[in-house]
User: Fold these one by one.
Assistant:
Number 1:
Amino acid sequence: MGQSHDLTLNAPMLQAAPLVLEGPTLNIGASFTPLGWSIFSGLDADTVHDTAFAAEEVVSPNELALLEIALRQCREGAITHQKYARAVEDMIRRVCHLPSRRPRADHRAVLRAIEDWLESAFNPPIADLYDRVNLSARQIQRLCRRYYGVPPAQLLKRYRAIRAAMILAQKDPPAQLRDEILVAYFDQAHLIRDVRRYTGFTPKALSNEPFVQGVLDPDGHGQTGEKLRKS
């Protein structure tokens, strides 16, 4: 995984991992969509996933200097945490608007197709994705690995497990959604293994921990929770 720095970048996480903080600590940052990560970092998700590294490996010296000044001012109380967060936001915006970071239009189209496919059902067939894009299966897999870190089959596996966790964490999930879980998994062991891998919790813990239930609220999970918000 790596060790954190004052200014740290966490590459896309493909599964749950422990995080240890030795406090007191205040964490201010931003999260990226798969496309956002690619635009900001210029790095492929499948080459750097599940790692943390110093921001200087991606951010230019000039941008890094501005952030370090703002960080020092925040520590000294000269500016508020909110103003430091705005400095981080402004830096991200400037980097993402660099002409060299603009993604190709055809790549954007593939990512939209992947998102629509993931949203189309709890466990959509892989063939449906290939039917949506006028590219070979190999090209789609390559782009999926570049932006999401894994090919479509593994991406679906992750989204499916997180969605299952969201359903199981609800107090009274609709019967239809519970039925979809039963259809999507071979047996209970399969469900437990996938949910624990991608969320860090067993299905039993999901229903017993109020904190976990809040973390897995579909409203906080963007595209992953879209199908559940519509149910």
Note: The chain has two domains: 8-101, 105-229.
Number 2:
Amino acid sequence: MGGNAWLQTPPGLSQAYGGFDWELACQYAEHSVVYRLVRGGRAEFYLKLAPTGHYPSLAAEADRMRWARDRLPVPEVVDQGSEGFVSWLATTPLAGRDGTSPELLGRPRELTQTLARGLRHFHETAPVATCPFDFRLDRALEHVRGRLSAGLIAQGRDFHPEFRHLTPEGAVAQLESTRPPSEDLVVCHGDYCPPNILIQDGTATGYLDLGELGVADRWWDLATATWSLEWNLGPGFEDLFLEEYGVTADHDRIPFYRLMYDLVC
């Protein structure tokens, strides 16, 4: 069964899925671990484990997947629960390879354009009017202030290099002082980056890791998506992404939402 030094698989879960071979799909230290559950040589489920209490919770992710299921290509939730200090989420597989597959990374311009079209499709398809999940600025800033008050924002470790000079208090103050005056609302993915997008034949065929899906300014996704291109592909692809998506760079909202990304979880 799966397990490691910081996140052990609950005994009940091991028993429930004991008839499968557990293959490690991906792991993020202190965040989550995902197993591919294989039987008869075929992946039947993906099982994500995370510490109970981690934000965003797997229960929240399951709720968002269930809402999005009839609207977008997202996995079907087959099981969600918790035992002790560990929560889990079991989902069905989808077609495609994630955006970090070597075959896709080897064609970075094509990958960039595919990811941009995938995000545009997400924003155009998911309906704001009926989405019950909110991450507009009032809600987002309230969440960030709560994390600061609880001592959950750590200088250095939680910040990307652009923001490591800031103290937690200074980072939140900067976020407050640079708040955009308006929002261009869509249903945002919340963590749109290559590992969370499945691709087949030049098309986004699946969206993963939906724990932060909610109504927000489209630049919440655009700022993170273009940032993640640099982490995964290197510099030089941001303008291509924005051009393919159909916008010009907003040099006020991009740094604002990138700083928020470092502060929300």
Note: The chain has two domains: 11-91, 97-264.
Number 3:
Amino acid sequence: MISEPKVTNDTGSYLFLWEREGIACHVGRIKDSREGLSADLLFKTTAPGSSTHLHQARLNLTATRSRKEFAHHLAGRRDDVDWEAVLEQVCVYVVEKEREGEPIEEIWPEGATPPRYLLYPLIPEGIPTIIFGEGASGKSTLALILAACAILPWEDNPLGLIPPKDATNVLYLDYESDAQDIKWKLHALCRGMGLPSFPLHYRRSFLPLADDVDQIRAILRQKNAHLLIVDSLGMASGGDLNSTEPTLRFFHALRSLNTTSLLTAHTAKSELTKTKTVFGSSFFNFLTRSIWEVKKAQELEEDSLSLALFHRKFNRGKPFKPLGFRFSFGEDTLTVARQDAREDFLDSFPLSIRVLEALKGGSLTRAELMEELGETKPDTLSQILQRLKRRGQVNRVGDAWGLAAPREDT
């Protein structure tokens, strides 16, 4: 008669221990599909003086024949254990726990708190944030700067971001570069900004996150890391990015980690509109709570570049205003500064903002505004002007429109 095991249940994995029999089993990389619930099982012996490893393989937890074959392999290593009974305990327990889902909570509105940020306003706490843009637009460099803000924490950072009160460990999963490149960028940042040295927990990655989630979970716990940076989303998802399955697998695995995450991604452009989105399945956009688009402006052979971040989606309130930054590169230095995003990216701002900027040079007729702004829809421009007038931001005198005079305090 097999004894009852002690079971440690971690999100996404399980550890079974049969003390009397001196065996243990780790269950991980659990996946539910049409064929059934499958997982990787690793059996070890805990009895003194015996071999540690017994057997490791992937098992369909809902298939009786698969269990019998697995038990046969185990019996070849140790024949003093009722392996079919052991596997029955493992399979029944894991299938039941995986399919019952999270426990029900009773939620009351009293005591509710507003959304919290790990790095305000770019990274809300506890949810995934995507920063996407064209290739070579500075996404990775920006991600490392944000990591520095969290790790130090960099309270007087020139970007105007509000870091956490306490130092926050960061795990950086790199799917595109290598450790030397990342190390050099951090060296240049510290040297250029006069920052003290700091540790970034770095991992060169190649497996899709869903296939690597157990190891990532263990590293997050071991390093006490509370921010996960994934660079980039396409490689971390694996498979056909336009297909739903790899996208859902990625977010299922990411959610099981229960941590704050920053994901870099490449951009896709619709053939029908100028709207840009995250490259791949629309579920990348649907399942992410906060999305920023990064745009770059840089002249050829310039040693500096301007970046602007536009908040395209936010499920916890209204989107934030665009943020502008400037990166300057030396031989072994990187300096960063905040700048007005309108300076180099005015064309990307809403029409109302571009109208107000155009009128700073003096009053203009609607026709002159259309020429100035390249606006081809007079009705759209008229609606914007009327809206700005109702807000008290512009006035009309004859055929010309101008900025309203600032109101004096009474």
Note: The first strand starts at residue 6 and ends at 10.
